[in-house]
């Protein structure tokens, strides 16, 4: 191993872990295993003869050596990413790397890819699913499609697409079995939620004149995908963003007896403020139209 430069695969793994503050999140971003990232970091530490991370409680913190290497590697990889994106955009064949949660990807983005190809043939997407919100540098993404609220990192340009609207949904069979459906008696129903949006039920309750803690959740699911399948199976009442269940409502797999209310969150497309890719604004306009369009067109 040359002493002039660290092994670049190991340095890339270290930079991602240091930037994201987590070996697991670095593994997700790099599409490798947790063990692979750990081995790369050990390689650097053995070559240096000093640790780069120290354990603090359940997390990791950078040592002094780790901080120095993070500053240098972060700047170098950041400049490389920006130069590479610029070169590929100039060459005219770079896909737009879009990040979003797995639930958004599966239930909303993928079903619309064919229409996107027809409406914006000049745009090719490379899709990246992640359950963690992107860091200030967007973690190598060209853009992130989010359901979120400000404040936003100062280096982002945030294109608002529309307000988030959420509501309770259930299987038609479950709705038919309960003739006394009303907001007032919802607390006696099995309510389902997700760990990623624990505030959804409290926000909906407040919008309907109830106390935030009036609707206790009987079962939490890790992902919205699992939550909605549980609702379809008749296991309880789920809370979900309207666009993600619009197709289910149109097909009759789910019903929404109480409709939907706006929350403080928004649908947004987030990009690096320095990204001058002209396709971004056209893509944002297309996303707005899709969010406003009826599900059964």
From TrEMBL:
Pfam families per UniProt: HTH_1 (PF00126), LysR_substrate (PF03466)
Any one of the GO BP annotations: DNA-templated transcription
Gene3D superfamilies named among the record's database cross-references: Periplasmic binding protein-like II, Winged helix-like DNA-binding domain superfamily/Winged helix DNA-binding domain
Keyword DNA-binding: yes
PROSITE patterns, A to Z: HTH_LYSR
Keywords carried by this UniProt record: DNA-binding, Transcription, Transcription regulation
UniProt cross-references to SUPFAM superfamilies, sorted A to Z: Periplasmic binding protein-like II, Winged helix' DNA-binding domain
Domain HTH lysR-type: 6-63
Gene Ontology MF term list: DNA-binding transcription factor activity; sequence-specific DNA binding
Family membership: Belongs to the LysR transcriptional regulatory family.
Official protein name in the record: Transcriptional regulator
Organism: Stenotrophomonas panacihumi
């Amino acid at each position: 191993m040359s002493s002039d430069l660290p092994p670049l695969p190991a340095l890339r793994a270290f930079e991602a872990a240091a930037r994201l503050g987590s070996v697991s999140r670095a593994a997700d971003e790099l599409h490798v295993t947790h063990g692979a990232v750990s081995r790369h970091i050990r390689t650097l530490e053995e070559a240096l003869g000093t640790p780069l991370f120290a354990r603090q409680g359940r997390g990791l913190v950078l040592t002094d050596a780790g901080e120095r290497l993070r500053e240098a590697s972060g700047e170098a990889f950041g400049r490389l990413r920006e130069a590479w994106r610029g070169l590929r955009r100039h060459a005219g064949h770079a896909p737009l790397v879009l990040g979003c949660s797995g639930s958004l990807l599966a239930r909303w983005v993928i079903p619309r890819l064919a229409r996107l190809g027809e409406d914006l043939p000049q745009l090719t997407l490379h899709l990246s699913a992640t359950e963690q919100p992107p860091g200030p540098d967007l973690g190598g993404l060209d853009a992130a499609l989010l359901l979120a609220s400000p404040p936003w990192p100062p280096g982002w340009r945030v294109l608002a697409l529309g307000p988030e609207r959420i509501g309770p949904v259930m299987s038609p069979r479950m709705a038919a079995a309960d003739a006394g459906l009303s907001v007032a008696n919802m607390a006696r129903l099995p309510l389902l939620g997700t760990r990623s949006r624990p505030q959804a039920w409290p926000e909906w309750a407040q919008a309907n004149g109830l106390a935030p803690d009036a609707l206790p959740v009987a079962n939490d699911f890790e992902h919205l995908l699992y939550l909605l399948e549980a609702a379809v199976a008749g296991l309880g009442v789920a809370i979900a963003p309207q666009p993600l269940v619009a197709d289910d409502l149109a097909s009759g797999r789910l019903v929404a007896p109480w409709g939907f209310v706006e929350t403080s969150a928004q649908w947004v497309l987030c990009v690096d403020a320095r990204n001058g890719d002209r396709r971004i604004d056209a893509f944002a306009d297309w996303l707005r139209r899709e969010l406003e369009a009826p599900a059964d067109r």
